[in-house]
């Protein structure tokens, strides 16, 4: 943790440790080597300052030095990589590749997230819909397996924003029923996921920050 003295001009990120959207935002902010004040919160106790900036009340929220508020994880990822993109995650992408990356992320958010939530809830509450929802999720997982087989990564033959955007969601999927996932017929997805989860970047992104309270100083990401 860096001491935040004189840090008042840095952007502020309201974040939740295990929220997949906040996780993907933190990944992009780390990848872009941005210095950010991080305010770790809980959903049960959303800070007024966050709600004033973003009344919709979801995390992540990034408040830029000029007061601009970014309240969608994908917008935060884009902003970060527009500031600095040392791994050419955006810069290398041709316009049509870029479109494909955005389209895949959007489709994942639209078509995978809901069945994933239902699958997690079915498992947690021992509902008999667990298999149905897992199979719904698997339709998207099968596509990702095929993409990894064809290209090595989700879009094209190098890691892109799409890969990073999905890490937290695939992690959730793999953790619902670890025993089943260990034997599931998705070898490429499993290797891809375990590589990402074992990376130094992932460990840095998951570093725990003390919950923010207005009297206390914040940490920097
Ligand atoms: N579309 C938003 C979704 C963010 C989102 O739904 N975050 C959840 C936590 S993982 C949240 O803040 N929910 C608000 C609540 O449950 O009160 C994004 O991509 O940033």
Write structural notes for this entry.
- The protein folds into 2 domains: 12-88 and 207-220, 3-Layer(aba) Sandwich (Glutaredoxin), CATH 3.40.30.10; 95-201, Glutathione S-transferase Yfyf (Class Pi), Chain A, domain 2, CATH 1.20.1050.
- The chain is 54% helix and 7% strand.
- Helix 1 packs antiparallel against helix 6 (161-176).
- The protein is of the alpha+beta class.
- The model is unreliable at 1-5 (pLDDT under 50).
- Glutathione (GSH) is lined by residues 16, 19, 21, 43, 57-60, 72-74.
- Glutathione is lined by residues 16, 19, 21, 43, 57-60, 72-74.
Instruction: Catalogue the unreliable spans.
Output: 1-5
Overall pLDDT level: 92
Instruction: Quickly give the structural class.
Output: alpha+beta
Tally the structural domains.
Answer: 2
CATH top level of the largest domain is Mainly Alpha
> For the largest beta sheet, what order do the strands appear in spatially?
4-3-1-2-5
Percent of sequence in beta strands: 5-15%
Radius of gyration: 18 Å
Instruction: Give helix and strand order, one letter per element, not per position.
Output: EHEHEEHHHHHHHE
Topology (elements, then pairings):
Blueprint: E1 12-15, H1 20-31, E2 37-40, H2 48-53, E3 61-63, E4 69-70, H3 73-83, H4 95-124, H5 130-151, H6 161-176, H7 178-183, H8 187-197, H9 200-205, E5 219-220
Parallel strand pairs: 1-2
Antiparallel strand pairs: 1-3, 2-5, 3-4
Bound molecules: glutathione (GSH).
List keywords for this structure.
Glutathione S-transferase Yfyf (Class Pi), Chain A, domain 2; 9 helices; binds glutathione; 5-stranded mixed sheet; 2 domains; 7% strand; 5 strands; disordered N terminus; Glutaredoxin; alpha+beta; 221 residues
């Amino acid at each position: 943790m860096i001491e935040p003295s004189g840090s008042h001009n840095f952007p502020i990120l309201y974040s939740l440790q295990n929220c997949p959207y906040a996780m993907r935002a933190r990944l992009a902010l780390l990848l872009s080597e941005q210095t950010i004040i991080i305010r770790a919160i809980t959903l049960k106790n959303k800070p007024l300052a966050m709600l004033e900036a973003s009344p919709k009340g979801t995390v992540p929220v990034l408040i830029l030095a000029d007061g601009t508020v970014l309240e969608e994880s994908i917008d935060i990822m884009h902003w970060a990589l527009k500031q600095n993109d040392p791994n050419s995650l955006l810069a290398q992408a041709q316009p049509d590749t870029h479109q494909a990356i955005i389209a895949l992320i959007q489709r994942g958010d639209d078509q995978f997230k809901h069945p994933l939530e239902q699958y997690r809830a079915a498992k947690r509450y021992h509902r008999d819909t667990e298999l149905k929802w897992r199979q719904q999720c698997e339709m998207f997982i099968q596509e990702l397996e095929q993409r990894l087989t064809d290209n090595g990564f989700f879009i094209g033959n190098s890691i892109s924003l799409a890969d990073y955007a999905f890490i937290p969601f695939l992690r959730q999927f793999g953790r619902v029923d670890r025993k089943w996932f260990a034997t599931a017929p998705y070898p490429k997805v499993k290797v891809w996921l375990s590589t990402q989860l074992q990376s130094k970047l992932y460990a840095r992104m998951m570093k725990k920050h003390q919950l923010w309270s207005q009297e206390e100083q914040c940490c920097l990401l």
